[in-house]
Amino acid sequence: MRYKTIYIAGINRSGGSLLSRLFDGHPDILSYPTELGFPVNNNFYEITDSYSGIPQTIPDINFNENNDFYSILDIPKQKHEYSTTWGKETADPLGIRDNYLEKNFYGNVDAHFDYNKFTGIFDKLAKKAKSIEDLYNARHHAYFTAWDNGKHIKNQSAVVMQDSGGIYLTNIDKFFSEFHQSILIYPLRDLMGYVAAEKVRYARRFFGSRRFAFPQLPNYFVKKFDHYDINAQIKGWLCALTRVRILQEKHGLNRQFIVYSHNILTSYPKETMTRLSELCNIEYTEDLLRPTIGNKNWLGNSHYGPTKGISNKISANYPKVLTKNEISTIKLFSDNIDMHLSEHKTPVDLLSIPQKYLYEYKRQKKYFNETEKLSLYYALSNATKRRYHIKQVPYYSFFAIIYSIFVRIVHIPRMFKLKYFKARGKQNYT
Question: Taking the complete model, does pTM exceed 0.85, yes or no?
Fold first, then answer.
């Protein structure tokens, strides 16, 4: 019951979810159906929100003392009470509510989770833990045994964790040293695709369409939407890229720290997954080309809508949602970097990028080993990504009000089902 840990530690909207779903069907791999990172570190300052840049930390534990392992791993000791009221939905810490998988944006997956079984197995195994790896192995085994009556757990040798802010883990060295044959994978998405995806996300939030597959917000209004901060999005992407570059300087291009291109994966899936399986020391199978969740077809979590399989057509959406000025602004920062990343190779080598094209390289390098300073730096650097420009109310705000009401009306059957038939049939509460 000792698992090799494959941690997909990226930033949001960069393709990490797709890779975790491609690993899902492999016979030697357990892949969590929802995001799972390491505990958020509140020792530096009180965390009041969740966004990329918030520091995660692998905890230091004295296993000779009595420990509250639930608190240490951010696991609720009792089944979590959550709300499904419109506009007031709350998440479940384990990502599985009544017959529902969180982060399953499109499509429905029949999912059951026995919380009592989970806590019973975790308690039994955690008592025997002698290391942080033992403790996480206890969590993994308990989780997959309790999920759908253990039908997904067999004799797998590896487990995949994925988190959209995981690259800001404060003690990556501890991950490599404490976890058996550990591998950290960073998905690198092109800047144009990243900003486009983020713009769609904020536009859908502004217009009240949320993350539902239907109704889909017309691209006309997405393109007109200009209340988000494009420069903050560019800065966040560059900030992460610079951190990864410094990590590559430290750890090199090897089988332990792997950077791959999301664009190359979607364009050359078999070639890329063959290479990734080789680097992860797992046997290549055709299962690695089919994105699944719980071994069922996964329709993605793209804000452009549902997709089947591995889609390489998303780039066609960029001109539909980005204005010419936005594209020009992005190119000012991306063109010089892209020319150094043109080779279709896995892993991606960032060491050739001149420092002048990176984001505050010298400052990030200077404070790289000063955990508290760097954690605050990354949190502040990314916090501005969520701000909206305050400006004169545009004409499309009227449409946003009408559209948000329309979305709610469309979802009345869903709300009725949640209130009176909770956990009946396949659910999608997202």
Answer: yes
